[in-house]
Structures are given as structure tokens and as C-alpha cells.
Write a structure and sequence with these properties.
This protein is mainly alpha-helical. Helices cover about 80% and strands about 5% of the residues. It is built from nine helices and two strands; from the N terminus they run ααααααββααα. A two-stranded antiparallel ribbon has the order 1-2. A hairpin with a 3-residue loop joins strand 1 and strand 2. Helix 5 packs across helix 6 and helix 8 runs antiparallel to helix 9. The longest helix has 28 residues.
């Protein structure tokens, strides 16, 4: 199991480096595909992936990405109003086939997966996006690793004892500090070896905030799984689960890094 997880993790990192490093249409296409797969994983939890409610969500996600690519985001709000009307129409005209929870998930999923993940692409498209986009992954996956280590060494107080008994407050704090340190080191490395001009203090602050938010994203994904008594969202990534299992913290971190980069950078 460990070998499988390690090998698939290495492949994932290689794909990440190539796609995020290249950016542009390649990253856009990969994120659109990942969003649709993640949306399918979420919809399977409430069993709407093959029904009209799921179809409405898929169409809205694709429509959102089209608007993003065309830089016509002024139409995003009308798109989501249309999505809401559509899922409610399916709800009432197919009644009592669907439950209110399924209708809510159809609408929520487009925001939770497609919109939130799209901020990886939006961050990459910023002026300094080639550098700042990596803070998304440093603050989420770096925080997770540092939190695990700090929790093993110093963990005493449970962060969410019912939802995730192994996570501790000390581990959470260690994760945030670790993410901040990684952000500063990354900025220094970029300045030294890549000729970038980014502030280590700024990157440390952004990664620290991102690390704190990433833990909420991780716990949210776990809460949904526990509510529906499933272990993983999918099996796409051997040893890691599905898209939502591997990118649960990235989903929350990406928008935060984007807006912090815009307003503080």
C-alpha cells in the first residue's frame, strides 16, 4: 500500500509540475477535466451523477469554465441563477424523485469543486502567477505534512475529536508555522535561483493563512464522507483515493491564495 501510494504520488507531482509550470490551455484543460471528475465523485455520494440534477451541474461547470477562458466573468452570476432555477425545476417537476439534500448538492457542488479549483488557473494567470501559484500547493500539502509531524511529536489536544480524532491543535499550529516557513524558503529560492522578485515575508504570510484555511477544507471533505459513511470519494489515484480526496485542501486554499496575491502582492 505504501509503495503504491508513493509511486502514484511521484506521478502526481510530475504531472503537477508539467501542467502548472506550463500553465495556459494545458492547465486550463487539466483543471476542467479534474473539476468534472471531482463533481462526479461528489454527485455519486448523493446518487445524482446519472440523473438530470447531475447533468445540470456538469453543464454549469462547463459553462463556467467557458466564461473563464473567454474572460467574460460578468456572466457568471446569471449562469448560477440559471443553474439554481434549473435544479429547482427538476426538483418540483420530478417530485418526489429527489430529496432536498440532492438538489442542494447539485448546486453546491459546482461552487465547491469547479469554481474553487479554477482559482489554480486564475492564480497562474496573474502577473507573478508563475511563482505565486505554487503557494497553493505549499500551503495545503506542506501544511498537511508539517501538521502530521507536529501532531506526532507534540499533539495533546484534539482539534475535532469526533470528526478527526487524530488531528490535534498542536499539529494544526505546527502546520501553519511549517507552511509559513516553506513559503519564505520558497520565495528566497525563487529570488536566488529564478531571478524572481517576491517578498519572503509576504509569501510566508500568504502560506500561513493558506495553511490555516487548508485544514478547514480537509475537515469539510472528511465531514461529508463521514455523513455518508464512505472512506474515499474515488479510486482514480491509487493509494490516495479520488480527486476530492487528494485536492480537498487545495480546493479551499486556491481562492485564498489568489485574493491574497492580488490584494497584498
Amino acid at each position: 500500500m505504501f509503495k503504491t501510494r508513493l509511486l502514484s504520488g511521484i506521478v502526481l507531482v510530475i504531472v503537477l509540475v508539467v501542467t502548472v509550470g506550463t500553465g495556459g490551455p494545458l492547465l486550463y484543460g487539466i483543471l476542467l477535466t479534474a473539476s468534472l471528475i471531482g463533481l462526479t465523485e461528489l454527485y455519486k455520494v448523493v446518487k445524482i451523477q446519472d440523473h438530470a440534477l447531475g447533468a445540470a451541474g456538469y453543464l454549469a461547470a462547463i459553462g463556467y469554465y467557458v466564461l473563464l477562458y473567454l474572460n467574460r466573468m460578468e456572466y457568471a452570476v446569471p449562469l448560477f441563477i440559471l443553474l439554481l432555477m434549473l435544479v429547482m425545476a427538476v426538483y418540483v417537476f420530478a417530485y418526489p424523485k429527489f430529496r432536498a439534500e440532492q438538489v442542494t448538492m447539485a448546486f453546491f457542488g459546482v461552487f465547491y469543486v469547479a469554481v474553487m479549483l479554477s482559482f489554480v488557473y486564475q492564480t497562474r494567470e496573474l502577473t507573478d502567477g508563475g511563482v505565486m501559484v505554487w503557494l497553493i500547493f505549499l500551503s495545503s500539502w506542506g501544511c498537511d505534512t508539517c501538521a502530521y509531524c507536529a501532531g506526532m511529536l507534540f499533539g495533546r489536544h484534539k482539534m475535532a475529536p469526533v470528526l478527526s480524532p487524530k488531528k490535534s491543535v498542536e499539529g494544526g499550529v505546527g502546520g501553519v508555522i511549517g507552511a509559513a516557513v516553506l513559503g519564505a524558503v520558497f520565495a528566497l529560492a525563487m529570488d536566488r535561483f529564478a531571478g524572481a522578485s517576491v517578498s519572503p515575508a509576504l509569501c510566508a504570510a500568504i502560506c500561513g493563512v493558506g495553511g490555516a484555511i487548508s485544514q478547514i477544507g480537509d475537515l469539510c471533505a472528511s465531514a461529508i464522507k463521514r455523513n455518508h459513511e464512505i472512506k474515499d470519494y474515488g479510486k482514480l489515484i491509487p493509494g490516495h483515493g479520488g480527486i476530492l480526496d487528494r485536492f480537498d485542501s487545495v480546493i479551499f486554499t486556491a481562492p485564498i491564495i489568489y485574493y491574497l496575491s492580488v490584494y497584498l502582492g
